[in-house]
Amino acid sequence: MSHNPSATRTASSDDSHAVARLSTVDRFLPLWIGLAMAAGLLLGRVIPGLADGLNAVSIHGTSLPIAIGLLLMMYPVLAKVRYKEIGRITADRRMIAVSLIMNWIIGPAVMFALAWLLLPDLPAYRTGVILVGLARCIAMVLIWTDLACGDREMAAVLVALNAVFQVLAYAGLGVFYLNVLPAWLHLPTQSLHVSFAAIAVTVLVFLGIPLVAGYLTRTLGERARGQEWYESKLLPRIAPIALYGLLFTVVVLFALQGKTITSQPLNVVRIALPLLVYFAVMWVGGFAIGRWLRLTYARTAALAFSAASNDFELAIAVAIGVFGATSGQALAGVVGPLIEVPVLLGLVYVALWLHRRLTWPQDDRTHPPAPPRRDIARVSFATPTERLMRPSPPCGDVGQNGSHGLRPPPT
Questions:
Q1: Is residue 288 assigned to a domain?
Q2: 2: left (phi over 0), alpha (psi -120 to 50) or beta
Q3: What is the domain range of residue 45?
Q4: Mean pLDDT across the chain, nearest whole number?
Q5: Buried b or exposed e, range 114-149, using 16+ CB within 10 angstroms
Q6: Which of 54, 75, 314, 323 is 20 to 30 A from residue 250's alpha carbon, by CA?
Q7: For the domain that residue 236 is a member of, what is the CATH number?
């Protein structure tokens, strides 16, 4: 990995000027996420019956408020995707193959190993953690990729592929990692009965609805008024919904399990340990492979966050459906997103820091040249909040040779 000291000094100077112009919301996104977590925990503790009320209506085991928050969170991101570029993305078979290997071979194996190493005496929690590792992300990975200035078109392709594999492989992998492989290793086994139809419905709801809505919004909007109007006029009205949906989802998630988390802190810590190691190992592995393959920063970020993210909606739904809502498996499934949200948000900032610190290859065939120096000072350090609130942020032009192909704002 190369490092350009002079570029770093220049970037740091630009950063200080840019940060001074940012709003309070932009500068303190981690604080707002933390406050949302605290608010959820507090609500779950002080309002009797809140969890039962939130769970009164569910979609295949997922609370309706969480489902609404996820749909609101994903729709603006999918409306930003430039679907006409999907053909170019799918031509990169090398990256797609690496992503599928990381998601469906390496990821489940890593989680299986961590679950047995760190939870050998807690079979219910161990099973729940393994179920989380088998569920590859089809939702929040889009948010993390977008926040980190990753390639959102590539992320959309990887999400679609994961959705297909989710339907075809999740139940089979569950049987393999809970029954077949433990038997080969002379470990205790756990039976699992999961309906392919139930998995397909979960994928259809949490990916299909926002994907169709985002595609139709862009297609019809560009057809009616053109791409410039769509990205400069319509998307600014849609984009803020993603941030509101993210904060709402975090509040509801923590409210649903507030009493459980605060009354069983040691169990939560035990469950969190393999998850923390898993997120770190998979993200670092994805990022390192992206560098080894000499991918652009945008694609490296998409690869890393795809590898590290998990589909907690499906894991929770399966755990509740098979083992019950009050089971240890269900608690492990719920702890998954509670750990994933702050950890991957932190990794967003790590990715942006690496973007500035390292030299990245640029694909001249698909990406335009970096903007003039005056534009870099203006746009290169847009915060994650800005990228959720803005329609098509030029964050890919940050730093050295990391062009994402997004246009800078007019001078």
A1: yes
A2: beta
A3: 5-397
A4: 76
A5: bbbebbeebebbbbbbbbbbbbbbbbbbbbbbbbbb
A6: 323
A7: 1.20.1530.20
Q: Which of 25-39, 106-120, 366-380, 389-403 has the lowest mean pLDDT?
A: 366-380
Residues facing residue 358 across a β-bridge: 3
The answer to whether 159 and 141 have CB atoms below 8 angstroms apart is yes
Tens of pLDDT, residue by residue over 99-127, are 999 999 999 999 999 999 999 988 989 99
pTM over 0.85: no
CB atoms within 10 A of CB 262: 13
